Amino acid sequence: MSQHPVFDPKGMPFRRLGGSGLRVPIFSYGGWLTVGGSVVGDPVKELIKTAFENGINMIDTAEAYAKGNSEVEIGRVLKELNYRRTDLVITTKLFWGLREGPNDGGLSRKHIIEGTKESLERLQVDYVDVIFAHRPDPTIPMEEVVRAFNWVIEKGWAFYWGTSEWSARELEEAYHVADKLGLIGPIAEQCRHNLLYRERPEKEYEPLYRKYQLGTTVFSALAQGLLTGKYNDGVPADSRWATEKEAQFKSHAARLSTPEGQADIAKVKALSEFAEKELGCTVTHLALAWVAANPNTSTVILGASKPEQLIDNLKALEVLPKLTPAVLAQIEEIAQSKPTPVNLYGRYPLDGALPTQL
Ligand SMILES: NC(=O)c1ccc[n+]([C@@H]2O[C@H](COP(=O)([O-])OP(=O)(O)OC[C@H]3O[C@@H](n4cnc5c(N)ncnc54)[C@H](OP(=O)(O)O)[C@@H]3O)[C@@H](O)[C@H]2O)c1
User: Fold this and answer.
1) Pairing relation of β-strands 215-218 and 299-302?
2) Count of Cβ atoms closer than 10 Å to residue 40 Cβ
3) Of 29, 65, 83, 160, catalytic
4) Residue nearest to atom 35 of ligand 1 (CA)
5) Is residue 216 within 6 Å of ligand 1 at its C-beta?
6) Structural domains present in the chain
């Protein structure tokens, strides 16, 4: 076997994923829509190589991405690039299975165990570092879900488990069940968080960061490209919103001409101006650095369709130290998106009892 390329973090800061001992780069790379979907073959290798050579050793995928093909492409490329497994943090997600049968999806013990084994096969690895429940499954008792993820961990097929788009109530129930049974609870929530979408990660989850040291692997930090400014004047032909066939992308594009869509565009334009004048960067860098600057963010999953986008996005690392409290306050003024504070009913606020102030 030829020598493994050596992983060089290249100054990438690493954070613990929640309360766990797993260290994750503050910028990771994810393969929704792109890897195995709009990008296949050699360009996938270029993307993953570019990530690895720029300090990103964490890759996120899911059984459902490109109907399993995202995992297949990532598995193939990681083999071809001959990266040392211990250098990598690989995460995948289960929920939307690949077939239509009654037991081919969701969070039953059957699908969690069978789905994990199939993901590992596609990825050509013995284990993933974190396995996520891609959505909550209200049709399955929480005890079954928690026990099944613990079984997967006991088997060595994953080291940790997490959730994605679960409500705080569902997470609380999982922690309660895990605690009662002496089992391991979720270490992280894979949640949407960006300058235009903040209520859930900043307000709803706030008690969970304090009580359970919940980590986050943040997705759509660029609001699927909106926060790059590329949709300011309509939908470019080679962009996600033009090329993806699903109805959600048509509705994203249609929303641009509504008053709400125009209000978002106005914010993106104002943020662009601020970024250029005050920070010497683009709105893309500002938006990514802003999410990474949140102390509850463990990693921001970058979604790039081209290596140039990845390299460009990593300039956010240079912007991070510029996000002083004064600068963050100016960004708040422009974005006007801060969730309303928790109602304390007149009680004097205690340290740590309020949502994190950015
Ligand atoms: N758990 C979940 O439910 C969930 C949901 C969504 C995503 N995720 C994960 O999070 C990852 C990232 O999510 P996301 O793709 O929505 O993230 P995002 O960063 O908000 O959007 C990424 C898209 O923005 C465009 N873009 C990125 N950098 C750019 C740049 N520098 N200049 C111009 N355009 C740029 C690209 O679109 P174009 O194709 O137009 O070039 C790219 O595909 C996914 O790959 C996946 O791993 C998880």
Assistant:
1) parallel
2) 15
3) 65
4) 225
5) no
6) 14-335 (3.20.20.100)
Q: Which atom of ligand 1 is nearest to the CA of 218?
A: 10
- Burial tier of 195 (Cβ tally within 10 Å: 0-12, 13-18, 19+): buried
What pLDDT shows up at residue 358?
40
Least confident stretch, 41-45, 243-247, 301-305: 243-247
Kindly give the distance from the C-alpha atom of residue 302 to the centroid of ligand 1, in angstroms, as a whole number. 6
Whether 65 is catalytic = yes
Helix (H) or strand (E) holding 120: helix 109-123
194 C-alpha to center of ligand 1: Å?
12
Token readout for 193 is 């968080």
**Is this structure's pTM higher than 0.85?**
yes
Task: Give per-residue pLDDT as tens, 262-277.
Answer: 999 999 999 999 999 9
In tens, the pLDDT along 323-341 reads: 999 999 999 999 999 999 8
Atom of ligand 1 nearest to the CA of 32: 45
In angstroms, rounded to a whole number, what is the distance separating the alpha carbons of residues 261 and 102?
A: 38
- E-strand ranges in 147-266 read 158-164, 188-190, 215-218
